[in-house]
Fold these 2 entries.
Entry 1:
Amino acid sequence: MKTENNLRYFKKSEFVKAPDKLHPDIMPSMDELRHLACVPIHIHVAWNTDGHSKNSYHYKGMAVDFHFKQGMLSPVEQFACIRSLPIFHGIGFYPWWNSPGWHLDIRQDQDLLCWISHGPEIYCYGVEALIRYLLEH
């Protein structure tokens, strides 16, 4: 069943600050991710004006931070769902957040970039590093 703006699971207001400033592919892509995962997703932030890295895709309306409902999917299963949607070229996992979750962005100018964040401004880049962490925890 489709709802507001042809979204099945989300309301535009769930994308918090200024959802109209988001790239038109963000909300439908997150809705599709929710559909594939078969579990609720809680959006932390999408478009934003501060609190992220200098050239953050949040400032361009091309990123979203969120978590899957806890206890439903392992982080490896979450990653598999995310990777099934090729629109996401930036994928970061943040296990230290109050609700461990993900950053996804739709960067157009780069190949896939993955990372694991071990704390504020502490990153380890590469799909191998991310997968290794997910499998070990």
Entry 2:
Amino acid sequence: MMKLHLYHLYVMFKYGKELFVADALSRAHHFTSDPPLTNDLLEVMTVQVLSSHHIDELRAAVQKDVTCQQLSDMIRNGWPATSKELTYSLRPFFSVRDKLAIYDDLLLHGERFILPPVLQKFYVGQLHQGRPGIAATKRKAKETM
């Protein structure tokens, strides 16, 4: 008979400026009160900000964009010692090279998508819906892309 372990997790939204302690769950390898789960079925939930259509559209744009392809190559193959060895289009990424990643053929800076120029105007327009103002739109853009 398989033993079923149930854990209840409650999530509360807090602004970044209110987070004083690092998230303990991101560093917890297992719960200390119970033995680690073995041979149990776990359900993993992922949250996507973009619909699958927009993800596919973003992936296609990344594959077509020359700068994105050069950036992908740098992430996969390694960076040169100095930014002077890079093309001008890749130099802005040199200072954040340790935060760049590729996931499912998408470019990420931390948890944010890197958008090719062909899609930037569309997504800034999406963020500006409801007319929150320039400062609020820029803040939203920095948080998400």
